[in-house]
Description:
single chain, about 170 residues, alpha+beta, 5-stranded antiparallel sheet
Amino acid sequence: MIDYRDKYKVYLGLAIGIILVPVLVIWLWNIFSGEEGRIRKFIQQGKKAVESKNMFSCADLVSMGYQDKYGNDRQGFIFAAKEVFDYYRQISVDIKSMEIKLNDSKTQADLEMRVSLSGWVQDKLEKILEGENERIRLRLFKEDKKWHLLELEFHGPVMIMEQNIN
Length: 166
């Protein structure tokens, strides 16, 4: 027969193990995944912010020095994102592939991604990026030990809010 106190020691040990194992796995993952892992985490944060249409989270991910080939600076990019969020009732982001290239100092990264974007307008689903045009290029910069979006470029035509970009 098991002593009453021994039974609780087993339960306590199990509870501590259940709590510590995931914490240890996450800690080790962060250590061994390096900068590429941090960039993948940054991309997942961006995906979550876009799908939840959270402007504050999106703005936190954009560098103060943002500049793209479409003439947008940080403020213009955030304004455009707000317009897109207001236009689409729901936005879906599906990341199909991602290739990360870090510079030698690991403070800048170029990403080539295949992403399928779609948005609901009223009761109609619009494809924003699809087929051969679903490739985008992101340039990231590490500022204050955090990754930020420095530039975004679409490969091929993109249809946003019934307007052709490119």
